Amino acid sequence: MVKKRLIPCLDVRDGRTVKGIQFEGLRDAGDPVALAERYAREGADELVFLDITATNQRRQPLTELVRNVARVLDIPFTVGGGINTVADVEALLLSGADKVSINSAALARPDFINELARRFGSQCVVVAVDVRLVGTEWQVMTRAGTTPTGRQAVAWCREAAERGAGELLLTSMSHDGTKSGFALELTRAVADAVSIPVIASGGAGQPADFTAVFEAGGADAALAASIFHFNETALPALKTYLHTAGVAVRL
């Protein structure tokens, strides 16, 4: 049985890990390298690092941070933020990243997904999809969640998978940081629409939320930030809880 993955997410701004609610009200959560080392030691399956201001500030990805993180990790990690070219991806992979996460660049030029999949392999390409509930429809957002695209969430996820994405990182901005649970119906709709792994993000608040997103939501992995950063839920205890609940996890 394929095991479900738990993935701490480190949103990085100015060299520090930060966390907010619905992408706003950011507060400091610590040094990203130290946090990465801690999470690897506690049993994280993977890590995700997102430079949350790189796109809007039109900056290059943080290759120096990637090198520093690679020195302390023995688990896979994904890096996103400000990635616009094949050269950006090559630099990050050569610096030690295992995967890259693309969002705004993929929406602006969907062929970018195809290019990266051909050049580096789909296993390296994670397409991040930030969505917000507008009325009764989930709409895709771009530029760190600040700009609506007019795209419907499930349709864009399906297109990204068909173009060669290896995974989808699906974030409900409506749930992000609220600790009210994941967007289960959305996650299930995407999981049913694609044949690649779906990482659910946004809304984790308690262990039962993870059980729900794996079982009812059909997610292959769950990403969380504040509950880990601020010691509200420890990774080892969460894995024990999931194992006891019958969810296949790596202990």
TrEMBL record:
GO terms for biological process: L-histidine biosynthetic process. The active site is at residues 11, 130. GO terms for cellular component: cytoplasm. Pathway: Amino-acid biosynthesis; L-histidine biosynthesis; L-histidine from 5-phospho-alpha-D-ribose 1-diphosphate: step 5/9. Its main location: cytoplasm. One of its GO terms (molecular function) is lyase activity. It is found in: Cytoplasm. Pfam families: His_biosynth (PF00977). Belongs to the HisA/HisF family. Heterodimer of HisH and HisF. IGPS catalyzes the conversion of PRFAR and glutamine to IGP, AICAR and glutamate. The HisF subunit catalyzes the cyclization activity that produces IGP and AICAR from PRFAR using the ammonia provided by the HisH subunit. This is Imidazole glycerol phosphate synthase subunit HisF. It comes from Hymenobacter cyanobacteriorum.
